[in-house]
Write a structure and sequence with these properties.
6-stranded parallel β-sheet, 38% helix, globular, alpha/beta, two-stranded antiparallel sheet, 239 residues, Rossmann fold
């Protein structure tokens, strides 16, 4: 990752998408492209890369495949379609459990402290802005009591980190944002979908349990992996 000549004077941005990815869908990949276009038009940031960070097995959630399977599916999707711009980071998946704030700190440490940032067009090292990437459903959890630590939210939704959020049908983001502290709202960047896409992992799992096709909703190599390993079959059914 580095800044090119056309990025001179812009701040390098790296996005971290933390989630289950059970399974990963095209929308998970598409989110990075939407932020790249939006940030170029509306901010001084330039997206130079992003990471998928699957949660570990200690995170108990219905329909959650094993971490190793979710990591493998993410890597298949990235290898086939992302051309090295989106990468898979396994640090979170290998932990018992880590709050999202700690995961973002991990990326900040690796990119800025350990690697010293990225090169600009003149060969100088500059610090990377690491930010959280998610859908509107993520913001909904910000206002649910007991889901997030106020300390962690303050850490994430600050001038140091921030969040880029993709709108989703059925979620009133404006209403949710009014319920957040003003200083948090300042660092949440909302990207509207110009081409509507409401595919979700939950819907994909539902289709699989009904033996419905998920082709063109999920990368083909991921579909092959799901079939090969018998993931997401209905109870008592063998795929």
């Amino acid at each position: 990752m580095k800044l090119g000549e056309k990025d001179r004077g812009r701040t390098p941005l790296v996005l971290a998408a933390c989630g289950s990815f059970s399974p990963i869908t095209y929308l998970h990949l598409r989110m990075f492209e939407m932020v790249k276009d939006w940030a170029r038009e509306n901010t001084r940031y330039t997206l130079i890369g992003g990471y998928l960070s699957p949660v570990g097995d200690a995170y108990k959630k219905d329909g959650l495949a094993a971490a190793k399977d979710r990591v493998n599916m993410c890597e298949l999707a990235v290898q086939q379609y992302a051309q090295g711009v989106i990468m898979v980071d396994t640090w979170e998946a290998r932990q018992q459990y880590q709050p999202t704030a700690k995961v973002l700190d991990h990326f900040n440490y690796e990119l800025n402290d350990r690697m010293g940032g990225v090169e600009d067009a003149d060969g100088n090292k500059v610090r990377v802005r690491v930010a959280l990437l998610g859908g509107a459903d993520l913001v909904e959890t910000f206002i649910n009591p007991g889901v997030w630590s106020p300390v962690d939210l303050t850490h994430i939704l600050s001038g140091v980190v921030g969040a880029f959020i993709i709108e989703r049908a059925g979620t009133d983001l404006n209403d949710i944002l009014t319920k957040l502290q003003p200083e948090w709202r300042e660092h949440i960047y909302v990207i509207k979908q110009k081409i509507r896409n409401d595919v979700s992992s939950t819907k994909i799992r539902s289709s699989l349990r009904k033996n419905e096709s998920i082709r063109f909703l999920v990368p083909e190599p991921v579909i092959g992996y799901i079939e090969e390993h018998g993931l997401y079959a209905a109870p008592g059914e063998v795929q």
